[in-house]
């Protein structure tokens, strides 16, 4: 399956939960150290209410795995970057506040 890409850095294979896409685009626009973001499968969860929240969870072979919560759903994010966890969390916090 071919991934649809936005500016070759946001790879879209699945739908994206409501309100997440503009945050990911802002994150990519302000951080050249992030090579790409691939949103994963969406699953329903009860505690995902309110504004979008993104947490960085575990390291992967080429970056970090994150979890986005919003609109009653959670979505995995595979972030390809050489940033440290702390630097990535700071970049995400900045994108969320923009």
Q: pLDDT below 50 for ≥5 consecutive residues: which ranges?
A: none
Tally of discrete structural domains: 1
Q: What's the story with the biggest beta sheet? A: 4 strands, antiparallel
Helical fraction = 10-25%
The end-to-end span amounts to 33 Å
Instruction: Write down how many β-strands occur, each being a DSSP E stretch of 2 or more residues.
Output: 6
What is the chains' assembly state?
single chain
Q: Which class do the helix and strand fractions yield?
A: alpha+beta
The main sheet orders its strands as 3-6-5-4
What's the structural blueprint in terms of helices and strands?
Layout: E1 4-6, E2 10-12, H1 20-29, E3 34-44, E4 53-60, E5 63-70, E6 73-81, H2 85-97
Antiparallel strand pairs: 1-2, 3-6, 4-5, 5-6
Helix pairs in contact: 1-2
Account of the 3D structure:
The protein has two helices and six strands. The protein is α+β, with helices and mostly antiparallel strands and 98 residues long. Strand 4 and strand 5 form a beta hairpin. Helix 1 (20-29) packs across helix 2. The chain is globular, with a radius of gyration of 12 Å.
Short description:
This protein is an alpha+beta fold and 98 residues long.
What key phrases describe this protein's structure?
alpha+beta, four-stranded antiparallel beta sheet, 2 helices, 43% strand, two-stranded antiparallel sheet
């Amino acid at each position: 399956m071919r991934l649809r890409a936005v500016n070759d850095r946001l790879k879209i294979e699945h739908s994206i939960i409501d309100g997440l896409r503009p945050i990911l685009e802002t994150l990519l626009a302000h951080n050249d150290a992030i090579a790409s973001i691939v949103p994963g499968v969406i699953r329903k969860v009860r505690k995902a209410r309110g504004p979008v929240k993104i947490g960085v969870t575990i390291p992967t072979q080429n970056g970090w795995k994150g979890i986005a919560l919003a609109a009653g759903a959670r979505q995995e994010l595979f972030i390809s970057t050489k940033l440290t966890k702390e630097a990535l969390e700071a970049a995400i916090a900045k994108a969320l506040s923009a």
